[in-house]
Amino acid sequence: MELVKIAGYMHDIGNAINRTHHAEYKPKIEKDRSVIALDLQIDESICFMYDYFESFLGRMMLCRKSAEVLGTTFKLTVNGRKVL
Predict the structure, then answer these.
(1) Can you say whether the dihedral through the CA atoms of 52, 54, 59, 63 is positive or negative?
(2) Which of these, 7, 22, 71, 73, has the minimum number of CB atoms within 10 Å of its CB?
(3) The organism sits in which domain of life (predicted)?
(4) pLDDT at residue 21, as a whole number
């Protein structure tokens, strides 16, 4: 548990220094179309897309399942390409 706390703290520090608008990358909710959309920009020179998806697949599945419970659709776009 202590390692998880340290990792989270380091994550926040790194994003405060290197990543602009980190808090603004939240899903957009399109109420009129019943859609929850997430548009990600991944710098593939730093992280291969496959590695990113391997790390965050659980979170993306949770978003999709949550959208279903809410009666909406979850859409994911990465670097301008539709994924879900």
Answers:
(1) positive
(2) 71
(3) Bacteria
(4) 59
pLDDT exceeds cutoff 80 at 82:
yes
* Residues 6+ positions from 68 with CB-CB distance below 8 Å: 74
* The model's pTM: 0.57
**Residues whose CB is less than 8 angstroms from the CB of residue 34 and which lie 6 or more positions away in sequence, other chains included:** 71, 72, 73
- The string over 20-47, giving b where at least 16 C-beta atoms fall within 10 Å of a residue's C-beta and e elsewhere, is eeeeeeebeeeeeeeebbbeeeeeeeee
User: Do residues 28 and 39 touch, judged by C-beta distance below 8 A?
Assistant: yes
Return the top range by mean pLDDT from 6-10, 12-16, 45-49.
45-49
- Phi, then psi, of 34 in degrees rounded to 5: 55, 50
